[in-house]
Amino acid sequence: xxxxxxxxxxxxxxxxxxxxxxxxxxxxxxxxxxxxxxxxxxxxxxxxxxxxxxxxxxxxxxxxxxxxxxxxxxxxxxxxxxxxxxxxxxxxxxxxxxxxxxxxxxxxxxxxxxxxxxxxxxxxxxxxxxxxxxxxxxxxxxxxxxxxxxxxxxxxxxxxxxxxxxxxxxxxxxxxxxxxxxxxxxxxxxxxxxxxxxxxxxxxxxxxxxxxxxxxxxxxxxxxxxxxxxxxxxxxxxxxxxxxxxxxxxxxxxxxxxxxxxxxxxxxxxxxxxxxxxxxxxxxxxxxxxxx
Length: 292
Ligand SMILES: C[S@@+](CC[C@H](N)C(=O)[O-])C[C@H]1O[C@@H](n2cnc3c(N)ncnc32)[C@H](O)[C@@H]1O
Fold this sequence. Notes:
By secondary structure, this protein is of the alpha+beta class. 44% of the residues lie in helices and 16% in strands.
């Protein structure tokens, strides 16, 4: 509610509706009390009365009634468990244009219970496939991400490791799935800002690069400059293309690509056309790279 209110105040968006779903009666009573106590502090946000029900029941209902007409929506699915969020439902959510999913994947607990006969049906439902059988802990996480990409057709996913006790043990992953590049862009920037302090452990560079099949950048800007010079040799591209390559193929973000291009321009190694009125690089600024 706080973040939504600030977004409206700053005119990032015109309207935000918050919907809270909680199945447990005690937690629901607490949720309701907090929402009712706090909502007047966030006057711009529309807060619907919290719903005491199963997530899957409520969301299936919304999808059935509203379907593709649903306003752009961010589904934060944070069950702290692994029941009640069937993969088929996540797939239905992602089939709605402009809907995104941010899912708490209970890495430690899923691994603990994977050999329990009572959990077989639950796991089939959670993963939307029987392929989880016989898999190691990290393979289960990778399978879930693969399902998001291949089965639910999410164009971009990004995940973030959450640890306990000074990063000794991974508790869960927050996995984000979106169909729009900007969804990935903003999520990656937020996640980069959070790590590596405290509970929010950003993936170590090696693991991160391996899992996202990216290049390892030892010293951000210099290696990014060389990467661009090779990647775009002999081409003229819009800066937005450079941004996309940065987000999809490197562990870095806009502040790095912007600085790398500025340095290359200062040294006369690239030419820029169509800069902003104050000389800044814009998304449609064209950058010409020399051939190798
Ligand atoms: C980690 S808490 C949510 C915290 C909240 N996202 C926040 O940031 O403050 C998890 C809650 O989800 C509820 N829950 C778990 N599975 C659910 C389901 N399938 N449907 C509805 N609520 C569920 C649990 O009862 C629990 O209160």
